[in-house]
Amino acid sequence: MPLDPPDIYCAEQIFVPPTFPGILKQYTKAAIRTQPYDLLRWSAAYFRALAKGERPPVKERLEYPQITTESGLSPGFLKVLIQQIGKECSAKVCKLQEIWDGLCLDRQKLKEMLQLSGCQDGNEVDWLSFIAVASGHLNENLQQTMQMLCELLTEEPEGGCASIPMYVFQQLYQFLAEMDCPEIPGIGPRVPEETTKAALNYLQEMAASHSGFIMPRHTTHILCPPLY
Question: Whole-prediction pTM value?
Fold first, then answer.
């Protein structure tokens, strides 16, 4: 017959694992910075990532005022997705769905973004195309979307000039410009070919004088033709 556990009369009799205070402190700070829509679901994703030795889905800083969109996506959450998946050419849809659900974002909007990104088989998606489409849902016009993509994909530290290779900029710009999505302001209706050619000719000249890199400020220069 099992013995009854000893009675506890004081706090000194309670054993607290030595790592518990640190884990709890980091979790609390992460929850405050991330501001998840569903704390319990996000907490499950947070501790699951820690248990696997992976980077948890945590924003770098608190977004204030908090951005509200139909999908629940914000620039901060998009950065979390990039941190979790990286900047590879393709991404596993199942992995993206797992992170998306952990951030408590709208699953139907994810499906719509995957379709716009050209995901056909449901197994993999062109990751940069998805980032471009997702960015389009967060901006008011195509130029703002391209500037955000520079800031998301740059390898420079925060506060730098946010440069990216011209070939990456051109690939994503042409991809978005050829789409016809007037209901998504950050993408908009199809851009005429002569408009994209004029913009790319100017930006290629700028990139040639900057070691093949383009910066957001180049797209806002007075001499730069409109992107849309």
Answer: 0.89
Which of 213, 137, 219 shows the shortest CA–CA distance to 227?
Answer: 219
Reference 138, options 60, 77, 221, 219; nearest CA is 77
The DSSP secondary structure of 153-204, one letter per residue, reads H--SPTTS---EEHHHHHHHHHHHHT--BTTSTTTBSPPPHHHHHHHHHHHH
pLDDT by residue, tens only, the chain of 228 residues: 556 666 766 766 778 888 999 999 999 999 999 999 999 999 999 999 999 999 999 999 999 887 789 899 999 999 999 999 988 788 999 999 999 999 999 999 999 999 999 987 779 999 999 999 999 999 999 999 999 999 999 999 888 899 999 999 999 999 999 999 999 999 999 999 999 999 999 999 999 999 999 999 999 999 999 999
Q: Which residues of 49-79 are buried (b: 16+ CB within 10 A; e: fewer)?
A: beeeeeebbbbeeebeeeeeeebbbbbbbbb
Listed by start position, the domains of the chain span 15-137, 139-228
> In this structure, are residues 150 and 214 in contact, taking their beta carbons and an 8 Å threshold?
yes
